[in-house]
What does this fold into?
Amino acid sequence: MSSANTISPSTEDFLVSSKLHYQTPASPDYDTTRQVYALSHDRPSVIVRPRDAAEVSVLVKHCVAEGVPFVVRAGGHDLYGRSVVDGCLTIDVRDINHVEVDADRMTAEVGGGILLDRLLEELEKHRLHTPTGGIGSVGLVGWALSGGYGDSSAWGGLGLDNILAAKVVNAKGDLVEADDEMLKGIRGSGGFGIIVEVTIKVYPADEVRNPKSPSFSHLLFSLSLFFYYPCPLVSGKD
It folds into this structure.
């Protein structure tokens, strides 16, 4: 194992004393945890799996103080492999996956690492629904901050439109609640820190359209693909 992929003694001491869950390349489940949906063979020096916002905060503060390079992952669908980088510490937020439905049944506080399949499973217990993409292993936050288009956009709008509030661990490691200006930026680009919780709109499941049923938006989407990728016969190309 190269020194670049070896965790430093000070960082390992910190992880042990902080009782954070982590895996190194020597851990038996490391390869399974490291798997991403990208053509990347990079191996992080350590994968840390914080369980709440407070653990993310102390972890980022350590990395900043010690100069430890780190990246963040949830679903791991970044095709450029930016969530697993050789020699870096990966903050894997998938264990921050709580769902708390508000009493008004119109909003829910959701952990920043939740994947779409778990989100829909938890909302179904309350007979609620929210716009998502079509692949369950994708993280909600990553999907939404990339725009958040899916079959359910026809009735619920884009994923980013359904984010009402956010809690963020910033570059200093401080946990902050996004103000109006930051929230506007998050919904426009997302790169303002590690989002550990979002408040989203939810809808009665019985009142939303079944995403499997045909809709006018599906027809428009199909037509857009047809004209954007014309077949050779129609375009006259070989």
In short: Residues 224-238 have pLDDT under 50 and may be disordered. Residues 230 and 236 are 9 Å apart (CA to CA). The chain is about 30% helix and 20% strand. The two ends are 51 Å apart (CA to CA).
